[in-house]
Design a protein that fits this description.
237 residues, alpha/beta, Rossmann fold
Length: 237
């Protein structure tokens, strides 16, 4: 049975970057946005709180959205109402966040890959870890030179109740879109996060340009290669 559906990771895959460089650049900007709005916070403590909020999303048990998991955790760390705190964050992600494009490495190959998938009659899904608001994800899509309209689904923290590497995150996508795992391929650069879908019977293509494997896990993937090699691969499907 052939591949009909391709799920793509974004950060480090279709949008090449070193994740740690990206986070180190934009997190202080986010802290600055709160300080400029009158929050008397220490940037280092605030960033630690954001990381704890991130972990709350990663550990989400499906009983609430990732958005709710994040804000219910970090709300007590900020001197604003939850509504005001999120308003500041969304304003940041729509505007100042775009400065972070300077620590990414966009390549035309990304858009060529997705366009080729569509031209060959397959469906594309953006299975980016849903820890960002939709506006932040739409900006990163734009940085990558991609067209959001090319994706049947884009996962964001507003809509999802699980995160990578929890296989339930991927199961929600497969079930929600009525996909047969044997007809799917996951493309990603993170050994822990993206290859966890293999437990559901989905084949994977590990992108090696900026591969992440922080836990030094054994690398088990049906396919692997650079983005240029991925482009050649999808052309031959």
């Amino acid at each position: 049975m052939g591949i009909r559906h391709i799920l793509f990771d974004l950060d480090g895959t279709l949008l090449p970057m070193i994740q740690d460089e990206f986070v180190r650049f934009y997190m202080p900007l986010l802290a600055k946005a709160y300080i400029e709005n009158g929050a008397a916070i220490e940037p280092e403590k605030f960033i630690s709180s954001v990381w704890a909020g991130y972990k709350a999303m990663v550990n989400n048990d499906g009983s609430r959205t990732n958005r709710e998991a994040f804000w219910s955790h970090i709300d007590k760390e900020l001197p604003f109402t939850a509504e005001k705190s999120e308003e500041i964050a969304l304003s940041f992600y729509k505007d100042a966040f775009n400065k972070a494009v300077c620590v990414t490495r966009p390549t035309p190959a990304a858009n060529q890959i997705v366009k080729t998938v569509r031209e060959k009659g397959m469906e594309a899904y953006l299975a980016t870890n849903p820890v960002f608001p939709r506006c932040a994800t739409m900006n990163r899509i734009r940085w990558a030179g991609l067209d959001a309209e090319d994706f049947n689904l884009i996962t964001t923290y507003e809509d999802c109740v699980y995160c990578k590497p929890n296989p339930r995150y991927f199961q929600e996508i497969l079930s929600g879109c009525g996909m047969d795992p044997s007809e799917c391929l996951m493309v990603g650069n993170d050994v822990e996060e993206d290859l966890s879908i293999r437990s559901l019977g989905v084949k994977t293509f590990l992108v090696t340009d900026t591969m992440e494997n922080k836990k030094n896990l054994p690398v088990e993937s049906e396919y692997a290669g650079t983005l240029e090699e991925l482009l050649k691969f999808v052309k031959e499907l």
